[in-house]
Design goal:
The structure holds two protein chains of two kinds. By secondary structure, chain A is mainly alpha-helical. Chain A has eight helices and two strands. Helices cover 34% and strands 26% of the residues of chain B. The chains are: A mainly alpha, B alpha/beta. The structure holds adenosine-5'-triphosphate (ATP) and magnesium ion. Chain B: One of its GO terms (cellular component) is plasma membrane.
Chain lengths: 217, 239
């Protein structure tokens, strides 16, 4: 996602100056995507140049607030109604690493897989603890003094946003572990089948000796 | 360091003999302390259920020792083992294993009554346990009148009732949707936070993530485990 779309969506709620935008963005995404203020001002400059936002004067401290133009408002509406483009999602380093690992001689692929799985499980555990804190906090409905790690606004909506962001990271970690499991069992199967078998699709169709998994489960 | 509740020392389990011999578990050592929840993951056939059954004394190792709260299971007779299991170990199985002709409260009270507690007291404790897992209102209902998630909670109450400090769960979230499954994990987590030791077999990474540690099994051998502590940076207040 671009910073541009995020700032436009926030400005649709009320006019803000750069530091406010940055704080709002981070509060609503649980600090998962930190922005620096320089990035925010550069982006605002470009949005103003393109006629999507306009400055509405400075406050006594000289901070310029921005609001959406009509064009900006249309841009936000279009963003909410169109899907996120997956084609342009950057390639994942792990995928590249494993693709290389299975084609480069002398790499211990099972160890690469296990090392990653252990690291991803640790990450998942940390995320789950954060989630548990967030859930306990909303169960207690106590003010944030008791739960300094949890963000909330009056409606508890920031809490909800934070939980959903955490869930997204958990789903992603879970998918990664499942994929690693799949890579591992595929490697076991390939090893049993022996080299060369992969290149003859017929071998798959005639395959009745399920030596690895079938016999054990 | 907390008290060790469960200890497996170099445990091996071999099924069958000669040609048909299968090594289900080979030289596994593992400790679970009070307050700790440990998850066991691994492909089908890697020995997860075998490990859990050995840990709870439902099965005996070919070689090696299993110790629960300082008591080596191999030194106990049949009766002693049964008593220890009833008093000290709670099991949660994938298929719940509730007795259909008994209500939820009767299912939960059964191990207490078998242990010689009076019916009234056993029932009170059973209802307490059902309340703990959030299904107190189902005390007088029969299993076939409950959803899968409710039955699973009753099964967990049964595993937690009394003074059991070791809880063993084999795929306890198997047939449940993700919210219900998560509720089961939260109950297990809370019980461990309150001082029990837990061992949880699961295929699902998001469920294993509730544990303090994950032990990975492959072909009966522990291939890795996530030790270490939580990344402090993640737990720091970000306000
Ligand atoms: N009673 C038995 N007799 C012979 N072999 C057995 C017996 N019980 C288990 N095994 C074998 O021991 C191995 C480990 O089985 P176990 O049930 O522990 O696997 P698991 O990891 O729990 O698998 P799953 O994920 O499918 O439940 C398997 O190869 C299994 O076939
Ligand atoms: Mg099993």
């Amino acid at each position: 996602m671009s910073v541009k779309q995020g700032l436009l969506a926030l400005l649709a709620t009320r006019p803000m100056y750069g530091a406010q935008l940055r704080a709002e963005f981070e509060a609503r995404t649980g600090g998962t995507w930190p922005l620096n203020v320089g990035q925010v001002y550069t982006t605002l400059g470009r949005l103003e140049r393109d006629g999507l936002v306009e400055g509405i004067g400075a406050d006594e401290e000289g901070r310029i607030s921005y609001r959406l133009t009509d064009t900006g408002r249309r841009e936000v509406a279009a963003w909410w109604t169109s899907p996120v483009d997956r084609e342009t999602t950057p390639r994942d380093e792990l995928v590249i690493k494993l693709a290389l690992a299975v084609t480069v001689d002398g790499v211990d692929v099972p160890t690469v897989v296990q090392t990653q799985r252990t690291a991803t499980m640790r990450h998942l555990r940390d995320l789950t603890r954060l989630k548990q804190q967030a859930m306990n906090a909303s169960d207690d409905a106590t003010p944030e003094a008791a739960n300094p790690g949890v963000k909330r606004d009056d409606q508890g909506r920031i809490d909800l946003a934070w939980l959903l962001v955490l869930e997204n990271l958990i789903f992603a970690g879970e998918a990664e572990v499942r994929w690693l499991d799949h890579v591992e069992s595929t490697l076991v199967r390939e090893a049993v089948r022996g080299p060369g078998a992969r290149r003859t699709p017929a071998a798959y169709e005639n395959d009745t000796d399920r030596t690895t998994e079938g016999a054990r489960s | 360091m907390s008290e060790t509740i469960l200890r497996l020392e170099d445990v091996t389990r071999i099924h069958g003999t000669g040609e048909a011999q299968v090594t289900a578990l080979a030289g596994v050592s593992l400790e679970v302390a009070a307050g700790e929840l440990v998850a066991v993951m691994g492909p089908s056939g890697s020995g997860k259920s075998t490990l859990l059954n050995l840990a709870g004394g439902l099965d005996a190792p070919t070689t090696g020792t299993v110790v629960i709260e300082g008591q080596a299971l191999g030194q106990l007779g049949k009766d002693g083992l049964a008593r220890l299991r009833r008093r000290r170990v709670g099991f949660v199985f994938q298929d719940f294993n509730l007795i259909p002709s008994l209500t939820a409260a009767e299912n939960v009270a059964l191990p207490l009554e078998l242990d010689g507690q009076r019916v009234g007291k056993a029932r009170r404790r059973a209802v307490d346990a059902l309340n703990t897992v959030g299904v107190g209102e189902l005390a007088d209902r029969y299993p076939d009148k409950m959803s899968g998630g409710q039955q699973q909670r009753v099964a967990i109450a049964r595993a937690l009732v009394g003074d059991r400090r070791l809880v063993l769960a084999d795929e306890p979230t198997g047939a449940l949707d993700s919210h219900t499954g998560e509720g089961v994990l939260r109950v297990l987590r809370e019980r461990c936070d309150a001082g029990a030791a837990g061992l949880l077999v699961t295929h699902e990474a998001r469920h294993a993530a509730w544990a303090d540690r994950v032990v990975f099994l492959r072909d009966g051998v522990v291939v890795d485990s996530t030790g270490g502590d939580v990344a402090e940076s993640l737990l720091e207040p970000t306000a």
